[in-house]
Every structure is written in structure tokens, then in C-alpha cells.
Amino acid sequence: MKTYKTTAMKTYKTTAMKTYKTTALITLYGGEIGLTEDQAAPRRRRLEGGKKGVYTILKPVKFKAGEVIRLPEAPKVLMRSMVEVQAGKPAPQQDAEK
User: What is the pLDDT, as a whole number, of residue 12?
Assistant: First the structure.
């Protein structure tokens, strides 16, 4: 059975989430995001839901470099600030500042 989410703007098919590690400060303005409970706690007023660690972003949320998040699809504009983490492989380490 296919699951569809509906918003005021569009209807879209729910997809599996990919895991990304941020390499710089990023801000997300909407959509769904997968977070741990520790990540979601300080952002609780800006998020809704939480079933199985998946939240809907209500207000802009920021993530610092090094945080691991899950997204259905990463915005192309942010791909310079994130790297995809492959299943079964550790998240890439950031280069130390010189």
C-alpha cells in the first residue's frame, strides 16, 4: 500500500529517507526530517510529530556542522553543505582546521 502525504501546496509520495552529515551551518525551512530525540529536544517548538523519529518542520531550524540528519531528498542548494552517509559506512570525518 502506498502512503501519500498531503500539504496545502501539493501531494507527494512518502519515500525512504537518506542520511546526511552536515559540513557547514545549514537552515531548513520546511518538509520532513529524521532526527534523534536528543537533536529534536531543543528544536521541539519548531517541529511537529515525532513518530519513529520523523518530524515536520514548522519554523526554520538550524543544524551546525557535523550533525547527522535524515531527509527524503536533500535540497540541491544545500548539497555543498552536506554529504550523504552510505548505509553500513561511518560518517565522513571533517578535516581539522589549520
Answer: 46
Residue 75's contacts (CB-CB under 8 Å, 6 or more residues apart) are 28
Spell out the SS3 assignment of 11-60: EEECCCCEEEEECCCEEECCEEEECCHHHHHHHHHHEEECHHHEEEECCC
What is the rounded CA–CA span in Å between residue 19 and residue 71?
Answer: 7
Q: Over the chain, what is the mean pLDDT? A: 81
pTM, entire model: 0.72
Asked whether the beta carbons of 62 and 78 are under 8 A apart, the reply is no
